[in-house]
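Practice problem: predict the structure.
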Amino acid sequence: MTTLYQDLKDKLARLHVLEQMIVVNTLVFLFTGFLSLVLSNGRFYVLNFLSLSNDIWEVFLNPWTIITYGFLHYSLNHLFFNMLVLYFLARTFANLFRPRMALKIYVLGIISGAVFFSLATSLSPGILNINGPLVGASAGVRACIIFLCVYMPDKLVGFFTLRFKLKYLGIAMVVLDLPGLLSANSGGTVAHIGGYVLGFYFAYQLQKGREIGLFLDNILDYLSNKKRPLKTAYRKKTKKDRPKPKRDQNAFTHQKQIDLILDKIGKSGYESLTQEEKDFLFRAGKK
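Answer:
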């Protein structure tokens, strides 16, 4: 049993962070499904506790729901299509960006979707058709897609025999989503827009050399048991004990190298890269 547990743990650790999110979303869906079988209202209670209410005052009373709603799905189809897109996004992010950046865009997209949803329910009551709580990872998924479309807009992608630039994919997604504001799922569409805005802003700021998700690093370090050394009463902290500026500088330089390679891909295609550049992208995707 110990060996099996360790094998599963090792395999999970080797997955890209977005693939790990697929596992988490799937396990949550299976758990809520199991509850519906053993308890008459078990799934209802879980969804009610973790979903994002359409009453903004309930959101203030249950602040965890601005994140937890993004790991719930009402149906198998809802889960399947979100996770399918997330899988392909994981393949793209793995080759171009650090895993942690993908996670930050995904989580911030979910939070942004929650903010837009809550503001819409409070500022436009009766205008939009929002009659229930919000669930689903769509805001996070869309944030990741739009980030790629804005950050490398001229990168060519293929769909069967068609080839087009990423920026056109982003424009098409937004335009096709807007009519949803008049549908029975207008709340979901509002959350999608929140994801679009976050993805756009994240990419826009990153192009200027600023990463808006840096504040999440301390939280992620804590969750991954990589806490910083605590100060002691008998020892004064020196500059050598503060590696963060160097780490941030190295991370920024590393990202700029990736940016230059991405620009080259966008202009001339992946095959124009030298073997050294391809190896660099491969190593960057493994970090």
